[in-house]
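Example record used in the benchmark description.
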Amino acid sequence: MAHDLAGTVAIVTGGSDGIGRATAALLARRGATVVICARRPEVLGEAKTAIEGEGGKIETFELDVSNETAFAGLIADVAARHGRLDFLVNNAMSVHYAPISKLTTEHWRKDFAVNAEAVFVGTKAAMKIMAKQGKGSIVNVASTTAIRATANMSSYSASKAALIQFSAVAAMEGARSGIRVNVIVPGQVQTAATADFATKAPDSAARTTEAIPMGRGGEPGELAEAIVFMLSDAASYITGVALPVDGGKAAQLYIPS
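Model output (structure tokens):
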């Protein structure tokens, strides 16, 4: 199991911390060569040091995925240098927390640029490479806010909902070329972004945790396990799925009084 992905090549966007970093680390432990990109060079450096410290093969690139030319170019470059691209995880995210009355058009466009348009750019570039290989797997990371409306998160929720529907279409189009496209739908996960949300909106954050049937937020490693499963051949007959990994919240198993 430890090296069952040996020889494969993966790209993880937003891979410097949180879910992305946990996913990159797990892929590396399983034997993949992992390329991560993110905007903050200092955090990328920390991730690289940690993953290499575990013996993983890791490359890092400072990159904003909303830069279409740079992002598509990175994917093409990685495939050219390594001779293949097996996995893509579109995990980078942008979120602006504000009521619609105070949300700016700039905020709306930024969330869509990162959460939806960059997923289109990355998926399109990867599918061209994977189609020639006759095989490949893509996992796009959404949010439960895409399927259960959350006040003050209109641009984030709408962009993540667009990601889910786009991924379903990509799965249909890629299936006959051996390309699988799936979505992981995280609920509340203990990341820096979650901590920031809790600081800005403590009452809302507390209610969010209370509404989870399992009574707690998830850990990045738990999301990473689901993502890597979906990427791997263990999920070889699964495509077009949006899988909630949220402690049961999406199932609406209970609503606190």
